[in-house]
């Protein structure tokens, strides 16, 4: 998909169960400060945060994760004032304020530029700089001098983004490593021993 390769260490212990209650991800609507605190609490720095959010250059999200940006930003009853107006209209067409009974939560691309091509590109950062981020947490990159500068650099140099993404992914692989009797080292990573 265009993403860089990076080392994944073998011999790591996997958990014995997997369920959505144990997923530890921040809200897609958190502030820059809350996002930075989340990343720091996991031993990651501002460069890691700005780089890892670039994984949103591909993939999709449910509208329920962005309706607050489109219709009730910070409980104002209005859309996010920083969102590009034409992009806001485009997203509002795809994401109604609420789903009707029996209707599934629609999906939108995190980066409409790569869309169904599922391409890993630096256009994500160009969209941040143009106020066209789908998720509020991504748009927050523009509101801090460090992350704005990183976004400008990655928008201009895809290769810099790729190199640093590989390093940050490797670093993230060291978070919450299971030890001693926790979990197991699987013979086949798709199923428990």
Give me the secondary-structure topology.
Layout: H1 32-40, H2 46-52, E1 60-62, H3 67-71, H4 85-94, E2 107-109, H5 123-129, H6 136-139, H7 145-156, H8 158-172
Helix pairs in contact: 2-7, 2-8, 5-7, 7-8
Protein name: peroxidase
InterPro entries: Haem_peroxidase, Haem_peroxidase_sf, Peroxidase_pln, Peroxidases_heam-ligand_BS
Keywords: Heme, Iron, Metal-binding, Oxidoreductase, Peroxidase
List keywords for this structure.
8 helices; single chain; mainly alpha
Strand content: under 5%
Taking all Cα atoms into account, the compactness measure Rg is 18 Å
Biggest beta-sheet profile? 2 strands, antiparallel
Give the proportion of residues in helices.
25-40%
| N- and C-termini, Cα separation | 31 Å
Q: What is the ordering of alpha helices and beta strands?
A: HHEHHEHHHH
Number of helices: 8
Kindly report the average pLDDT value. 91
